[in-house]
Fold:
Amino acid sequence: MSHQNPDGDGPRRDDGEPAAPLVRPPSTAVRDWPLDLGLLRTFLAVHRARSLTTAARVLGISQPTVTAQVRALEQQLGRQLFERLPRGVAPTSVADELAGRIAGPLDALAEVADRGRRGLEAPPEPVHLAGPAEMLSVRALPVLAPLAARGIPLRITTGLAEGLLEGLHGGRFDLVLSAVRPRGRTLAAVPLMDEEFVLVTTPGHAAGIGPLTCKDPGPLSEVPLVAYAEDLPILRRYWRHVFRTRLTARPAVVVPDLRGVLAAVVAGAGATVLPRYLCEAELASGALVELLTPEDPPINTGFLVARAGAPSRPPVEAVRERLIEAARSW
Structure:
């Protein structure tokens, strides 16, 4: 349902977002003047909030003004920056790239501009945390939940290490949990936790496998394997590290989330390799058993990564300190 906006900004839905795409056909003229910092500030607020209405509230201006400024920037760039969703907006790849270039400099300018202002009651900027879905869900979010009661908003993004580290470098995130240590000096990494990988299955499957040693993975040849990717990256690493051989089997089940892999194996789909922290409750209850206990199991170090030299923000520091403190018991 939509109705005509009295400000002349076109049809509008009840949630305040535009009922039509923001962008109009771009001008063919080449932009030959500097981009307005005010437009960039508005754009960044929309990009972070994923909503014109929320961005207007954060900036303290009207929603039609935010819409007009985003459209003006789109016209200057000749590119579409956002796509309309049923609720809110979604950034295009052009918007993600632009946000990555301007977020750091604009945040630094905002910190200088706001220094010394008294009585400033602007809503706190969210802390953008990214990492593997499993580690965030099982480890990070339970210990970060109390921060919400302290007024620290969190925005969580899941994904693979390479893409998330690129996003951190570009300013999309404040902190990233990564299983890969970043190279170079632009990103600073702190070792957070070591995750041990274990070969597990149900007691029923284990009973039919027979004796298994680090010298011979042969008894596993007929066991269905469950993996989170078609090329079995964690399983292949386990085979190479423990059995000193190359795994050539195809997975029976592929689930792109280790929590789904765990659920499938508990239900009897076969065997897999998982981080111990993810399946320790199932091992303790007997729902799963460890098929092998090598003296030197595969270990992967998780890092907490931030941009080197990024402006310090108390909410980001609170999240960082909370994760480092909690990781001592992980």
About this structure: Residues 193 and 328 are 8 Å apart (CA to CA). The radius of gyration is 25 Å. The longest strand covers residues 187-201.
